[in-house]
Amino acid sequence: MKRAGYSLIEILAVLSIGAFFLTTAAISLSGLQERIHLHRAVWEVGSRLNYARYKALAEGCPTRVRFSPKGYAVEFFDGDRDVWRPDRRGVLDRVAVSANNTPMFHPSGAVSHLATIRLENGRGRYRITIAISGRIRILKE
């Protein structure tokens, strides 16, 4: 007489192998999430620096980007009131931000207060430098 189906030991063996693969995948994906946060933060800061540069060129008003440990703020200079006005703000989750200066983009295209910005978390570190000509360079450290 032949029995149809699987034995309890066969089912347990398949389930344990499946659990092993799921655990391995979960561990791999947890590191991937940190890397995604870092790459998104680098892209966002780079694009906001370019935004500030082109805003200064297009609208003819000085524009600066201030950095804090958790994010950034783009501000433009209101010459009529002689005050810096906020334009955009951003919070960078799971990424530490440090900058040695606040870059200011001028309508001529030049930059004063040259800066080096560092973004890092447990999965890596990037450095963004701004040249006096306004060129923005992103390097993985």
Description of the molecule:
- The protein is built from one helix and nine strands.
- It is an alpha+beta fold.
- It has a single domain (33-140), classed as minor pseudopilin epsh domain (minor pseudopilin epsh fold).
- Strands 3-2-1-5-6 form a five-stranded antiparallel β-sheet, with helices on one face. Strands 4-7-8-9 form a four-stranded antiparallel β-sheet, covered by helices on one side.
- It is rod-shaped and about 95 Å long.
- The protein starts with 7 loop residues before the first helix and ends with a strand.
- The relative contact order is 0.15.
- The mean pLDDT is 92.
CATH T-level fold name: minor pseudopilin epsh fold
Oligomerization: single chain
> Rg from C-alpha positions?
25 Å
Q: Helix coverage percent of residues?
A: 25-40%
Portion in strands: 25-35%
For the termini, the CA-CA separation is 68 Å
Weakly predicted, low-confidence segments: none
Distinct helical segment count: 1
Question: Order of helices and strands, N to C?
Answer: HEEEEEEEEE
User: Which CATH architecture is right?
Assistant: 3-Layer(bab) Sandwich
CATH class: Alpha Beta
Q: What is the molecular shape? A: rod-shaped
Structural class: alpha+beta
Instruction: Indicate how many domains the architecture comprises.
Output: 1
Query: What can be said about the biggest beta sheet?
Result: 5 strands, antiparallel
Mean pLDDT: 92
The CATH homologous superfamily name equals minor pseudopilin epsh domain
Tell me the number of strands. Answer: 9
Strand order of the largest sheet: 3-2-1-5-6
